[in-house]
Write a structure and sequence with these properties.
CATH superfamily of the largest domain: Zn peptidases
Number of domains: 2
CATH class of the largest domain: Alpha Beta
Distance between the termini: 41 Å
CATH topology of the largest domain: Aminopeptidase
Oligomer: single chain
Order of helices and strands: EEEEEHEHHEEEHEHEHEEEEEEEE
Structural class: alpha+beta
Largest sheet: 13 strands, mixed
CATH architecture of the largest domain: 3-Layer(aba) Sandwich
């Protein structure tokens, strides 16, 4: 085992640690589980709850932390099942409760910043930088409809290894991301740690089949990394280039399509109306594509997320 201490914990073969780490200067404590295998191997980090209303990944991570047997494990598995605990306990959706910041926009963080900055700093330095590989579990927020897919960062030194991890995720689509900053897995990738972000689930629901699918993906990647016995499986995928549309106005939102639906250039994607039912804006496609995720709530906020769509490569 290459890493002898993580998050202040001395590691020993067969040891399981379940603890919280305190974020200095805040009241935030981050739950984590560290499972040290009986045999040497890589360090894999799994995080969930960076966006605290994305429940599929949170539940999958909680269950994995109880189900992985160190006697069958080579290497070390670190699981952070709820990165944004204060947001979870205050139902702030994607935001850190104390300062209103989106945690996945402030990595690698700042130990002298506000609560989200300090939290990101701890997550990066206590956990992420120790990893040989990293999986970040996400899904659709309370207002987001979403189809399953996986991200990895392009043009990084570890792109090939990350792409191999992504191939083990049971989704039809992948995005080779152009974003290299601010997000947890993005920052990790640019630090040389092969990292992926799995999107599965929507509308802050947590169906059993989606939880199990997340868990199966993590297990499959652990087989790829040699952490568990057995052959890994790879899944053919279609590549998408992602584009985001933000709402031009606040009002009521009436989408025409659902996540996973394809559309053609000029097609009506949705309509924003005022509180008398009058049209404010029709949103039409400017090219052919597929809905990756979109706002599925009646309310929509000016300059807020409206539609994320993919163009086939």
């Amino acid at each position: 085992m290459d890493k002898k201490q993580i998050a202040g914990h001395d590691l020993a073969p067969g040891r399981i640690v379940k603890d919280h780490i305190h974020v200095d200067g805040t009241t935030i404590h981050v739950p984590h589980t560290i499972i040290s295998g009986e045999r040497p191997g890589p360090v894999l980090l799994v995080t969930a709850g960076i966006h605290n209303a994305e429940f599929v990944g949170i539940q999958a991570a909680i269950e994995l932390s109880a189900e992985i047997d160190p006697g069958r494990l080579s290497g070390t598995l670190i699981i952070v099942p709820l990165a944004n605990r204060s947001g979870f306990e205050n139902r702030t959706m994607s935001l850190v409760h104390e300062d209103g910041k989106n945690l996945n926009r402030v990595f690698p963080g700042n130990e002298n910043g506000t609560e989200a900055d300090r939290l990101a700093h701890v997550l990066f330095n206590a956990f992420i930088r120790h990893a040989d590989a990293y999986i970040d579990l996400h899904c659709g927020d309370g207002f987001e409809e979403l189809m399953p897919y996986v991200y990895y960062v392009g043009d990084s030194d570890c792109e090939d290894a990350a792409a191999e991890m992504a191939s083990c995720v049971n989704t039809e689509y992948y995005v080779r991301s152009r974003c290299k900053t601010e997000g947890a897995y993005n920052t990790a990738s640019m630090s040389g740690i092969p990292s992926i972000l799995i999107e599965r689930g929507q509308l802050s629901q947590f169906p059993r089949e989606e939880i199990d699918a997340d868990k199966a993906d993590v297990i499959n990647i652990m087989k790829l990394l040699g952490m568990l016995d057995g052959d890994h499986k790879e899944y053919d995928k279609t590549r998408l280039v992602e584009y985001e549309l933000f709402s031009p106005a606040s009002g009521c939102w009436y989408p025409e399509l659902h996540a996973g639906d394809r559309f053609t250039s000029g097609q009506l994607l949705g309509t924003i109306r005022d509180y008398f039912g009058e049209d404010i804006e029709e949103i039409r496609a400017t090219e052919d594509g597929i809905i990756i995720h979109q706002c599925a709530s009646l309310n929509i906020v000016k300059d807020g997320p409206m539609i994320s769509y993919g163009v086939f490569v």
